[in-house]
Automatic annotation (TrEMBL):
It comes from Brachionus plicatilis. One of its GO terms (biological process) is chromatin organization. It is found in: Nucleus. Residues 13-74 form the Chromo domain. InterPro entries: Chromo-like_dom_sf, Chromo/chromo_shadow_dom, MRG, MRG_C_sf, MRG_dom, MSL3_chromo-like. Residues 100-140 form a coiled coil. Keywords: Chromatin regulator, Coiled coil, Nucleus, Transcription, Transcription regulation. This is Mortality factor 4 1 isoform X2.
Length: 251
């Protein structure tokens, strides 16, 4: 808790008891500055949202609070038009006087009830308030994000690589069958393909894996009877082919 001496050193834009507008999610709500304090050498305000249960009171900093004036009320309506719903709109459009009158009416009704009935009514109202605010949060949390086509293509390629990922052995076996259908010499094709598989199994640990992948390699091969070309897929085959191109370019 800051003392009065600390408070004097910090400039407070809002006075205790002042009506303000405060951000809660993407919207601005009418609220009251209940109390102000200096925390970490910065002004903090205890905010009570008009018409909300006190359990929603919170300490906020300056960026979330705005003066209650015509300009900021217009901004409130613009945000409401963009992000709001009819349920939220009815709450925001109710001014503080209506909230106060409503509260007074409820208090008057409560006075006529027995103690047990008052407690039950308060509990019921608290649950209704909480459910309404939860519904509001669900609506406010829906944010539309437009993903550019270039990024969508990357996501689709990633999906294809993960969902339809074949092992190097399967890819090379398909290549062999394709070449044999084209009447290529079986012995030559088989020798080339088997040579690529053998080279991959030999080179993968020392030439084709990033440092962070080597521990994964140890886990994958530790208790497996499969060869690396039966475990790894097209991405690592491309690394091998890129390695060939680099080697041939140097030569």
């Amino acid at each position: 808790m800051a003392n009065d001496k600390d408070k004097d050193k910090v400039k407070f834009l809002y006075q205790d008891g002042e009506t303000v507008l405060c951000y809660h999610g993407p919207l601005l709500y009418e609220a009251k500055c209940v109390r102000s304090e200096t925390r970490n050498k910065a002004p903090h305000y205890l905010i009570h949202y008009s018409g909300w249960n006190k359990s929603w009171d919170e300490w906020v900093t300056c960026p979330r609070v705005l003066k209650y004036n015509e300009e900021n009320l217009k901004k409130q309506q613009e945000l409401l038009a963009t992000h709001g719903t009819s349920k939220i709109a009815s709450k925001i459009k109710s001014n503080s006087r209506k909230h106060v009158n409503s509260m007074l009416e409820k208090n008057a009704d409560l006075e006529k009830l027995t103690q047990e009935e008052r407690e039950n009514k308060k509990k019921k109202q608290k649950v209704e308030d909480s459910n309404e605010l939860i519904d509001n949060y669900k609506v406010q949390s829906e944010i539309a994000i437009k993903i550019p086509q270039e990024l969508q293509k990357i996501l689709l390629d990633d999906f294809e690589n993960i969902s339809n990922n074949k092992s190097i052995k399967e890819i090379l076996d398909e290549y062999t069958n394709f070449k044999l259908e084209k009447k290529f010499d079986k012995n030559i094709i088989t020798e080339i393909v088997e040579g690529i598989k053998d080279y991959f199994d030999t080179a993968i640990l020392c030439r084709l894996l990033y440092k962070s992948e080597k521990s994964q390699y140890n886990e994958l091969t530790k208790n497996s009877t499969k060869k690396p070309n039966e475990i790894y897929g097209c991405v690592h085959l491309l690394r091998l082919l890129g390695n060939f191109v680099h080697f041939l370019t140097i030569k």
